């Protein structure tokens, strides 16, 4: 297992390097620059700004200088705010992480429970109701649901206050993010449970008189969770850092909002920092997912 982890870590480093390479060069291929929108800036001032941030050098040299700083733990400064990027990312990530982790926990718990109920009541009314709700949940994008929840419960009914930093209310943003993965996990759990319940080892356990609860929770559900874990790893990283539209709708100062504004402002250093941060989260989530396979099913080997 240690050999496998070392190999995966090396592949993770290679993946992050490729992501940084593609992002940096594609970003610089787009016409314009971070200072083109500045008003009343003379050419001399523009040249000074480009020289200060190494934007006057060839793109390859810029990339090598940037990666050298990253390897020394220097994430640079924002080209727009001139503030250190890492403290800004850390504070914003804390908000996005709280939002995303809450959403994924709710989605996992509710999805596994509803999927198990649907599998155990197949072709009965609980199964049909759950299928209808999950179809509706997967068909509705999170930003559409977020807009409807904001209009209905914040503006019309006024059951929840509009987001404010002083009195934050995470219920509606978390619900907006949790509905789609919950619906997907529900359908995935149902399919896996039906497959597990039809296996020979489950029929053998029932024939031996093993209690129904033990058959379901120990034999069937444990094996049915493997596809859920496969989906869950990347989804955690995606929800934590990919909730930019929902964050903008509720005006939450998270990492997603910073990423959108950095693209709009052509803030190269912020774009690179957030992209690398997301890539690191993704490869870590995938690695932890593979390790979780072994904990769920000891029969799985990494050779």
Describe the structure concisely for a colleague.
The protein has 303 residues and is an all-alpha fold.
Which tags fit this structure?
mainly alpha, 12 helices, 303 residues, 0% strand, 75% helix
Can you put this structure into words, describing what you see?
Helix 5 (125-139) packs across helix 7 (171-197), helix 6 packs across helix 7 (171-197) and helix 11 (255-264) packs antiparallel against helix 12 (268-296). The chain is mainly α and 303 residues long. The longest helix has 36 residues, at 85-120. The protein has helices at 2-29, 43-52, 59-71, 85-120, 125-139, 142-156, 171-197, 200-207, 212-241, 244-249, 255-264, 268-296.
Structural class: mainly alpha
Weakly predicted, low-confidence segments: none
**Total DSSP E strands:** 0
Cα-to-Cα separation, first versus last residue: 8 Å
Estimated share of beta-strand residues: under 5%
The succession of helices and strands, N to C, reads HHHHHHHHHHHH
Q: Fraction of residues in helices?
A: over 70%
Largest sheet: none
Shape: flat
Radius of gyration: 24 Å
Quaternary status = single chain
Overall average residue pLDDT? 80
> How many separate helices?
12
Q: How are the elements arranged and paired?
A:
Layout: H1 2-29, H2 43-52, H3 59-71, H4 85-120, H5 125-139, H6 142-156, H7 171-197, H8 200-207, H9 212-241, H10 244-249, H11 255-264, H12 268-296
Helix pairs in contact: 1-12, 4-5, 4-7, 4-9, 5-7, 6-7, 7-9, 8-9, 9-12, 11-12
